[in-house]
Design brief:
This protein is an alpha/beta fold. The chain has 8 helices and 16 strands. 30% of the residues lie in helices and 19% in strands. α2 packs parallel to α3, α3 packs parallel to α4 and α4 crosses α5. Bound molecules: flavin mononucleotide (FMN).
Length: 311
């Protein structure tokens, strides 16, 4: 049913037009611009590096504290701190291009027009294989409601970015909705080439001594193993209902987690919080997938995709 990837290598994946040498990517905001991890692993061996979310202008991010550990995960409210798209293109992208890293840019805007402008700015830039749309951002024109929670807005933003770019476009779905399939279908109708899921789940923590919220922003995004069952459930549902390849993630900490995501319907996977615990995790999972294929007598990793999904 879903688009199956094809490649000369056993681990190769075609994620809606983004050619990956293997299905393992690192999630936006957890791997900087790649270079930060070069002492730990060979970043060119990862399927793709999804770089920190880029906005049109530089953003200072939220006031602190911006991160707190939770049982089985963490809350973050970074607030998209980044130097802006021009600095990304001039100072960070050339290094990744030189290193032959497959780069997926991650963009975020306050309005649909900003998303389209960002997409057109990335057009023709050497080294960018695709665009991931962070739609878990407040839509300033609609009273700050997250783009990703309204199907009509999801449709509009994907359509606008598709019109502005010739690159494959991968909306990153927010799990903070009651029916993820409705949102996934809206993204498909807008022209999405693949779907990335899931972004963080909205949460918070209270400091009982200070009697106030811990995070400077009050609310933050929950990530890590705590969200894995939710991510798996949503990927499973979308795999059954929507004919687009899925980049799946949320709490992947080891090879077994990675296999679970692929069996639930993910053609490729993303590692986020796991990079903070073990900076070599992405490479270890690439190696683990290779071993698993050999042990199970499978030829192509894509044979695993959706294998656990019941008709
Ligand atoms: C510190 C931090 C910063 C993040 N920044 C971004 C970002 O800039 N853009 C984005 O789309 N997602 C961002 N995310 C979400 C991750 O890319 C990922 O979707 C999420 O953490 C779930 O995966 P995980 O449980 O493996 O971490 C961030 C997550 C963390 C923990």
């Amino acid at each position: 049913m879903n688009e199956r990837g094809s490649s000369a290598t056993d681990l190769g994946v075609n994620l809606g037009g983004i050619k990956l040498q293997n299905p393992v990517t690192v999630a936006s905001g957890t791997f900087g611009y790649g270079r930060e991890y070069e002492d730990y692993l060979d970043i060119a061996k990862i399927g793709a590096v999804i770089v920190k979310g880029t906005t049109l202008e530089a953003r200072p991010g939220n006031p602190g504290p911006r991160i707190i550990e939770t049982p089985a995960g963490m809350l973050n409210a970074i607030g998209l701190e980044n130097p802006g798209v021009e600095v990304f293109l001039q100072e960070y992208l050339p290094y990744l291009y030189e290193k032959n890293v497959t780069v997926i840019a991650n963009i975020a805007g306050n309005t649909i027009e900003e998303y389209a402008l960002l997409a057109s700015r990335l057009e023709g830039q050497p080294g960018i294989a695709g665009i991931e749309l962070n739609i878990s951002c407040p839509n300033v024109k609609q009273g700050g409601l997250q783009f990703g929670t309204d199907p009509e807005t999801v449709y509009q933003v994907v359509k606008a970015v598709k019109a502005a770019s010739s690159l494959p476009v991968v909306p990153k779905l927010s799990p903070n909705v009651s029916d993820i399939v409705v949102i996934a279908k809206a993204a498909q109708a807008g022209g999405a080439d693949a779907l990335s899921m899931i972004n963080t789940l909205m949460g918070m923590a209270i400091d009982v001594n200070k009697r106030k919220p811990v995070l400077g922003n009050v609310f933050g995004g929950l990530s890590g193993p705590a969200i894995k069952p939710v991510a798996l459930r949503m990927i499973y549902q979308v795999y059954k209902a929507v004919d687009l390849p899925i980049l799946g993630g949320g709490g992947i900490m080891n090879i077994t987690d990675a296999l679970e995501f692929m069996m639930a319907g993910a053609s490729a996977i993303s590692i986020g919080t796991g990079n903070f615990v073990n900076p070599m995790l992405a490479q270890e999972i690439v190696e683990g997938l290779g071993k698993y294929l050999k042990q199970s007598g499978l030829h192509n990793v894509q044979e695993l995709v959706g294998i656990a999904v019941q008709k």
